[in-house]
């Protein structure tokens, strides 16, 4: 398993995450019933992440600190909708936690994700459960425990994705609007897609957007 990532690896992981969201944005849109049933969560998350992709593609020989900083800054500028704003907050905390690091291992990833979740919760006046906030918080909680078991970043990220999926499945039971509609949270699904895109890249299976000629299939969440 891969133990650590550097700036180049982080950049590839973010590009892959953005592509995974883009490939599945319509599926996410169809789940969008909370907080406003306007069917654009997938589109907003895709547009937000595409801003980071644009910046990262310009970078060459980038350090981890700079890659995380560029990602956070681009997401903040390009944030669209509630989900985009929350993404920008998650990665702002992520960036601050990774500042000064040349590489990140499992514990660094867990700490960065925790910092991101804390930043997002602080910025939301009335955090609702059964949303991307819940899914990311439970994932961050698990990440810290996982890193104590095995500090390899691939191990932590792999099992974080499992935790995120379980948390996503439970959102329908936590939010009455989702329960009535019989769907899981759109933003939470987007978060799972981001983790999946990052993990696939880490394993050397970078996901590429359809308009670049990719042959990747859409994610199947059952």
3D architecture notes:
There is one protein chain. With 222 residues, this protein is an all-alpha fold. The chain has a single domain (7-210), classed as DhaL domain (Serine Threonine Protein Phosphatase 5, Tetratricopeptide repeat). 71% of the residues lie in helices and 0% in strands. The chain has nine helices and no strands. It has helices at residues 7-31, 41-58, 64-78, 81-98, 106-123, 132-149, 153-174, 176-181, 186-202. The model is unreliable at 212-217 (pLDDT under 50).
Keywords, separated by commas or semicolons:
mainly alpha; 222 residues
The helix count comes to 9
Compute the CA-based radius of gyration. 16 Å
Query: What global shape is seen?
Result: globular
Derived from helix and strand composition plus strand pairing, the structural class reads mainly alpha
- Please bin the fraction of helical residues: over 70%
Low-confidence stretches: 212-217
Task: Find the CATH superfamily.
Answer: DhaL domain
Mean pLDDT: 92
Give the amount of beta strand, in percent: under 5%
Report how far the terminal alpha carbons are from each other: 27 Å
For the sheet with most strands, the description reads: none
Number of domains: 1
DSSP, total strands? 0
* Top CATH class: Mainly Alpha
Element order, helices and strands? HHHHHHHHH
CATH topology: Serine Threonine Protein Phosphatase 5, Tetratricopeptide repeat
Please name the CATH architecture. Alpha Horseshoe
């Amino acid at each position: 398993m891969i133990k650590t990532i550097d700036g180049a690896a982080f950049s590839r992981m973010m590009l892959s995450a953005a592509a995974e969201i883009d490939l599945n944005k319509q599926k996410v849109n169809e789940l969008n019933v909370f907080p406003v049933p306007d069917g654009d969560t997938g589109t907003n998350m895709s547009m937000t992440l595409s801003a980071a992709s644009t910046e990262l593609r310009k970078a060459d020989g980038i350090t981890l600190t700079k890659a995380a900083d560029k990602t956070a800054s681009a997401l903040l500028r390009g944030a669209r909708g509630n989900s985009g704003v929350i993404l920008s907050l998650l990665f702002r905390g992520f960036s601050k936690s990774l500042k000064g690091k040349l590489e990140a291992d499992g514990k660094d990833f867990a700490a960065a994700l925790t910092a991101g979740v804390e930043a997002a919760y602080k910025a939301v006046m009335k955090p609702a459960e059964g949303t991307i906030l819940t899914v990311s918080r439970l994932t961050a909680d698990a990440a810290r425990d996982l890193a104590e078991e095995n500090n390899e970043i691939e191990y932590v990220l792999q099992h974080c994705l499992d935790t995120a999926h379980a948390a996503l499945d439970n959102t329908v039971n936590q939010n009455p609007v989702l329960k009535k509609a019989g769907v899981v949270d759109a933003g939470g699904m987007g978060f799972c897609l981001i983790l999946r895109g990052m993990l696939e890249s880490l394993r050397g299976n970078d996901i590429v957007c359809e308009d670049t000629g990719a042959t990747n299939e859409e994610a199947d969440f059952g």
